[in-house]
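PROTEIN–LIGAND DATA SHEET

This sheet pairs a single protein chain with one bound small molecule, S-adenosylmethionine, given as SMILES. Inputs appear in the order they were entered. The predicted three-dimensional arrangement of chain and ligand is reported afterwards as a token string under its own label.
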Amino acid sequence: MALGVGVMNNPAVYRKAKRVHVYDLFKAYEHQVANLFPKMGVTNIRVGDDFSHLYRKHVEPIKNALSVNVGDIRDVQWTKADIEILFMDCATTPNISVTILQKFFPFLIPGLSLVINQDFFFERAWWFPYMAEVFSDFLTPEYAEDCTLVSKCVADPDLSKLDLDGDTVTILQAMERFAARLDSAARQKIQLQQAWFLCERGEPARAKEIAARILSHPIDQTVRYRANNMLRFIDSART
Ligand SMILES: C[S@@+](CC[C@H](N)C(=O)[O-])C[C@H]1O[C@@H](n2cnc3c(N)ncnc32)[C@H](O)[C@@H]1O
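PREDICTION REPORTED AS:
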């Protein structure tokens, strides 16, 4: 929505029609069915149903700026044009993230393009800070807030460098190096991502150590809540 409004309202954008390309499955998931849709007065959509008609209604005022594509982003063949702003908000697994990188990153413009990574600091999304470090030669973090990271593309990407199945120590160290570029609030969130990464790799005891270390420092309420949640998750998985 924000990108579309920007295109429509910015007099410097001369070609507005279908300037923003939107990709989503538009299949309702549990959170939407339980919380979002009822708040909008919509009660007849079940998990898995198509809700693209609701989206189209919502974006009606800016529809001319959009090219809306329903389906799996992994099936997209982007060959169109260079990309000025890549806004990622569907990279919910490492596999989807890598596919987005492979398909869209080669079209970023060094020195100009911005990558907006929504949910970058989501506690289970350990692969974002790892990728950000691996690509630090061509993506520079510009701004971190809440759950989002905005980076600028400064050189052509070398996508061959990424190994999401790499050894645990290498990935943890890369996450650590990336965290060192950010402020202490962002560093704490990345520590929590390291802990979840260790859980995924079957090392809950080390994950607990990290969580305990995070909790022993003065921290943001949300990070505290999430670290405690993770500890509860590990303990309940053991019983
Ligand atoms: C956190 S929601 C964000 C949705 C939207 N950007 C917003 O702000 O409301 C994540 C979105 O990713 C989409 N998604 C997940 N996997 C996808 C895939 N493989 N291809 C396209 N979209 C996908 C989901 O349908 C969901 O709408």
